[in-house]
Automatic annotation (TrEMBL):
This is UMP-CMP kinase 2, mitochondrial. Gene3D superfamilies: P-loop containing nucleotide triphosphate hydrolases (3.40.50.300). It is an enzyme of class 2 (transferase). GO terms for cellular component: mitochondrion. The keyword Transferase applies. Residues 1-173 form the Thymidylate kinase-like domain.
Length: 185
């Protein structure tokens, strides 16, 4: 759903779609995904800073839509480093949920959520190979819960949650309404 929505938003706003990790390093993703967690997370963190430079440049030309950014890196790191249940996560106002002061900040962050069964059906329907994180989300409900709750605890900017279970068209309409409301378009 995320890729479908970001592509549709880009088209609707005549925007520029950027992805993390950015293309200049994304070919290294499979290599770093097999590295120990601290090295893998450093790769994704570096990707956010490289992406920030691309965002700054692109934003002078058109609205910029980003498919994953710091929130994703942080949520997966927190969920990986915290074992156990949601209650074992750092407390809600812990600094780990704060946006880094030296990283270009987005104006609006949307978190698309679907229930686990719907998520599995969509992944199977795509026929694509799952990443390690997708496999972990599917097989480990405690990990999935930690990731989702970590996203929900992010602040400055916080994530606005969007239920992505309805049809593509309905989700896109919801997302566009949130964007219009946020930017008073």
């Amino acid at each position: 759903g995320k890729t479908t929505v970001t592509e549709a938003v880009k088209d609707n706003l005549n925007g520029i779609l950027l992805r993390s990790p950015p293309p200049c390093i994304s070919h290294w993703r499979t290599v770093f995904d097999d590295e120990p967690t601290p090295i893998k997370r450093a790769f994704y963190a570096a990707g956010n800073y490289i992406l920030a430079s691309e965002i700054a440049k692109a934003s002078t030309q058109a609205p910029v839509i980003i498919d994953r950014y710091w929130h994703s890196t942080a949520a997966y790191t927190i969920a990986t480093e915290t074992k156990g249940k949601v209650q074992d996560l750092p407390p809600a106002h812990d600094e780990v949920y704060q946006w880094p002061e030296d990283l270009l900040k987005p104006d609006l962050v949307l978190l698309l959520t679907v229930d686990p069964e719907e998520r599995v059906q969509r992944l199977q329907g795509r026929g694509l190979e799952k990443t390690k994180e997708e496999a972990e989300l599917e097989s480990n409900s405690l990990f999935r819960q930690r990731v989702e709750e970590s996203y929900r605890r992010m602040v400055n900017p916080a994530c606005q949650e969007v239920d992505a279970s309805p049809s593509k068209e309905e989700v896109l309409e919801t997302v566009l309404q949130l964007i219009k409301k946020h930017f008073a378009l």
